Amino acid sequence: MQLIYAIDIDPEKYVAESFHKRMLPPAECPHCYRVKTLWGLGYYSRNLSRMVRGALLILVRRFRCRCCRKTVSVLPGFAQPYRFVQNRTIEKYVRGNPFSDEVVRHLDLLSQYWRRFRIWLPELERTLGHILKRAPPNDPFTAWRFLLAVHGNLALTTQKLVAGFQITPFGRYRCHRPNGPEEKKAGER
Ligand SMILES: [Zn+2]
Predict the structure, then answer these.
(1) How far apart are the C-alpha atoms of 113 and 189, rounded to whole Å?
(2) How far away, in angstroms, is 110 Cα from ligand 1 center?
(3) Global pTM?
(4) What distance in angstroms lies between residue 66's CA and the mean position of ligand 1's atoms?
(5) What is the average per-residue pLDDT within 72-98?
(6) Are 168 and 158 in contact (CB under 8 A)?
(7) Where are the domains of the chain?
(8) How far is the CA of 1 from the centre of ligand 1 (A)?
(9) Quick check: 184 pLDDT over 60?
(10) Phi, psi (5° rounding) for residue 8?
């Protein structure tokens, strides 16, 4: 399982300051709901788009519950689960023209994300009827604006969706592999 941790730093700073080492475990295990049972397991790595050309390799902290033995990873809020392009760029894309360079560089992926959001919207409306009830049905731009206005931004919207419903704005949440080959042992980096 993955949780989103809203942090107020950009991805470059997260990497430069090795912020992954400072990610604390959630107080409560999201599987068995016991408190103070999560301990550092290591990291997994993933790529994330940058403002400039190229990609950043970020390390995501993982924890294991000593009671139920299940794992949880804590993704920094600037990234979207399973999506390469960072949240800030996705928000800029949906706001529309004029597109900045970072948006233009990832237009193909961003249009795929938007298509997923549009397809996924009926499920979001079913799940979040209390939030979206004043938005006209099947109106993706208005629904998007409502979601971000209620929660604050895309990071906080995703945080709420993942924690509360195991979904993201773009689809159903999928657990990442518990012991992928990319895993790094705690303290290795
Ligand atoms: Zn547990």
Answers:
(1) 32
(2) 36
(3) 0.87
(4) 7
(5) 95
(6) yes
(7) 1-78+175-189, 83-173
(8) 11
(9) no
(10) -100, 45
